[in-house]
Amino acid sequence: MRGVCIAIAILALMPLNALGQGDPARGKKIAYTCTGCHGIPFYNNAYPTYTVPKIGGQHQEYLISALKAYRAGERQHATMRAQASTLSDQDILDVTAYFVSFNEEDS
Amino acid sequence: MRSSVARSTGLAELTAVVALVVATTGFSPAASAGDPQRGLEKSQVCQSCHGRTGAESLMPSYPILAGQHADYLEHALKSYRSGARSNAIMAGFAANLSDQDIADLAAWYSRQDGLSDLSMD
Fold it and tell me: Sorting pLDDT into bands at 50, 70 and 90, what band is B76?
């Protein structure tokens, strides 16, 4: 029983990306659309006006929660909602796995 | 044909010069008037979750802030402050920040090494 509790505690503490979820190679294909804005340095968001955020090397768990919040309409952004609504849970895992790997490829 | 090649070469050179100016001066089209040193001083409470430079987040669910665009960071903090973006933890912190505080914090974190743009190679 004690062993089970410890195992559950360890699982609960594991970050999502340590579970090896997402295929960055497939994610790279999905990310083609994303680079239309996130791949252009200092590209401006139309409204409200601010520079499109950098997402290369961002934490996967944060990116997953952001995409799901856009998809659910909890985070307000027309373009990102439209983009995220086309993504399945697996797509989100794969594309975020690619974003995370980006800094490693780049450096 | 030759003139179109010459034109595109000129454009490539111009793009390279602009990229060099951006890279060397840190010039941003939407540069804010934040003071990075004051931002560091005001970031004590932020550091406990995001780390000193914003590259050492305590949890993977907390975003890396280091190297993010200053005006995007300002947009995010103001959205938390107004409630447009809902997050129980961030709402509490952002509620206490003035526009100047936000500009200073954004100036600090945006100048650190961290995030990058995507590119298709």
Answer: very high
What part of A 56-85 touches B (C-beta under 8 Å)? Answer: 56-62, 65, 74-76
pLDDT tens across A3-20, in order?
Answer: 665 655 555 555 544 456
**Four-point Cα dihedral A7, A12, A16, A21, nearest 10:** 40
Parent domain of B61: 32-110
Do B18 and B65 fall within a single domain?
no
Using the Cβ of A91 and the Cβ atoms of chain B, whether some distance falls under 8 Å is answered with no
State which residue of chain B sits closest to A37, comparing Cα positions: B118
pTM exceeds 0.80: no
Q: Which residue of A has its CA nearest to B70?
A: A51
Q: What is the ipTM of this complex?
A: 0.77
